[in-house]
## 1
Amino acid sequence: MTKSVILTGLRANNDLTLGNYFGGMLPIIEMAKARSSEYQINMFIPDLHSFTTPINHDELQTQVMNNARLFVAAGLPLDNNEIHLYRQSYISAHSELTWILDCFTGMGEMQRMTQFKDKSNKLSNDAFNATKDEQAESPLVNTAMALESAMHSSERISVGLFNYPVLMAADILLYDALYVPVGDDQTQHLEYTRDIAERMNSKFGSIFTVPLAAPKQHEFFGKGQGLRIMDLQTPSKKMSKSDESGKGVIFLSDDPKLAAKKVMSATTDDLALIAFDRKNQPGITNLLEILSLLRGTPLDDVVAEFEGHTRYGDFKKVVANEVEGFLTNFQANLSEVDDSKVLEKLESSEIAMRASANKTLLRAQRAVGLRPKE
Ligand code: TYM
């Protein structure tokens, strides 16, 4: 009997954050450690997704390897044939299926994606601000600059950023994945994956396995809802690796003492009463959530332990110590990862996964008429 597939990917640009770790990495690694006899585990590095926004391409190879090493440091076993670790661009079926899915995806569907709207707004604002700075130096060329700013922003928003979710759908559908652990920010992309799979299946007959809807995913991974770790300085926004200041972001490579300081200076509120309340006390609520994840204990227990306490400093100290201990341990594991074993695993998984992805691709090619029917 074939096993159900659990699959996820984490992009290789910048260092990964505590949000990436808890949202995408830990759920699959826990499954890989405990349940690989029941499920096939696919963990991959979406390197083609890495330059949907501008990056330094000279660093990509290093970052891809670094990502793979981070997965191993987090506990991904390499000596197990049910666990696969691979690079997206090494399996060309990802790009090929993307094109097919592209042609059945509406522009409007992609335009509605929140992540596209957020990221393209950010790129536009960056281009606008860059032009504004130049204008300040040379006020005579206002009109030309405004035009250039408009051009710049639309050029910087790539078609790749626009159809990023289509490539993500191909990543999932090629392997018939049923379970896809991701943070809350990816829920909309998962929903699109289900939609396109169902659309193709109803038009062409059964090609794809439809991954489970978000609530079922949360149930499977033992969570009440999608996870969204918030920025420590601005707890109304998601902790993100692309944040420029990095003050509210804990990176897995942060000096553990510096990370503890970031926790100590996290924004809270002036209510002076600890409570789990996402709306009115987002900073404290975020810290409670982080503490429960770091300890691996249920959120309710952590809330019960601290609820009603009035000294935020004491509570932050507990979280800061936990973060410091976690990073010290994680970085010690990282320093022991054997690069040659990682590379060996990547290469052997890529052979196996190429064969499995090509089977699904052929099903899709036959369905749309690119290959003769069986
Ligand atoms: P990426 O690389 O932006 O993020 C990797 C994972 O981290 C989760 N995440 C968070 N979770 C909780 N709190 C946060 N603050 C936080 N920030 C990030 C993301 O939800 C994600 O699970 N498109 C994906 C990569 C991808 C993928 C796939 C994932 C490509 N193909 C197929 C699953 C299946 C992405 O950009 O994630």
## 2
Amino acid sequence: MLDLVVRGGKLVTPAGVQQADLGVLDGQISQIAEEITESARQEVLATGRYVFPGLVDVHVHFNEPGQAHWEGIETGSAAFAAGGGTVFFDMPLNSLPCTLDAPSFDQKLSALRALSCTDFALWGGLTPKNLEHLSELAERGVIGFKAFMCNSGLPEFPACDDATLYEGMRLAAEWGLPVAVHAESEILTAHLTRKMRAKGVSWREYVASRPVFTELEAIQRALLLAQETGCKLHIVHISSGAGVALAAEARARGVDVSLETCPHYLAFTEDDLEWLGATGKCAPPLRSASEQDRLWAEVWAGSVDIIGSDHSPAPPEMKQNPDFFALWGGIAGVQSTLAVMLSQGWQRRGLALEHIAALLALNPAKRFGLKRKGQLAVGFEADFALVNLSQSHTLAPQDLHYRHRLSPYLGQTFLGVVESTWLRGEPIFKEGKIVRPSEVRLQTRNL
Ligand code: ZN
């Protein structure tokens, strides 16, 4: 007797789309077959629906403990589940405290256990002030360490100088853990910020203060340090095709690097900031249309490994400032990742559905050592989303599960509707509502 059978869906597997029944027992996928004859406690008819592996988003900021008024775990994970997500990796900032040592890890873990409706992992911070605490974080089970190569905007999370990054990478390499970098040059962006501010404070000067070459300089330096230390490097939110090309070239030479970009770099260009305003501010900034085309070409070619949302909201009042440099940046998008990729990737550019599933689930699970997540295959955890690709939806404020109903994607029409999301064979989102699962689990490497 199975716990669940999903009948007649189109399963998006690593080998391609396959129409089959999917059987679940004890939270795991126990069978995939053209027709499962065994009976089950629960049956779901998925005729005409696509079954995607649950999304693994390696890059979110839910800001709890301490700053739940920015987003919070309950609303953030709900939005993620509504978008087909089942595992997120929470960044070590902008919670208070930041995740920089064992007590702050423990505090965040208990908040996540109490409030999340999906599985999760924790990033630990790597900063000049917590090198001596990295080992505690590794023992606690962080998925990796996150470092900023430029100012993070938060005094409690200072940028890594090269020496700190080098020492942190050496330690992480010893423990087999990845180091993720926000790759923008502090020296160059600080200099250009001063220079551009003297001219004006609109989005145009802001974008001009962080040009593509300032990203390339930091990527190059991080690659060199990773090569030298043997550390697994993960470059978050690469905004440019040139940045991807640079890192992909190093990967071809044997540097152990994975490349992440975000839906907003694929969905918007810098010119959209004219109407998006503050909701479209991020760092690195949105790029020109030609740079975006190059980024899409790199996605197409398979050079990008992972698409993470970098969901990073803030209270609306922090986004109201005529000075584009001074207003708080960060894109609210964790609910829309799959929607963007289905509309912009599959429908518009013909990206295969299994390629999208690889970017959003398979590759992140593999890269970060989640051995039973990220794909629809026997023996893997039964994390999946049922998606109706014959419908579309226009994103309205009432659809958003975020604490603040703000997002650059509001008002846009997307192909596909996520009808339900399942974690270990239990529904966590259906009929527009969140259902708390019986258990959520901390994900660590090789689990
Ligand atoms: Zn981020």
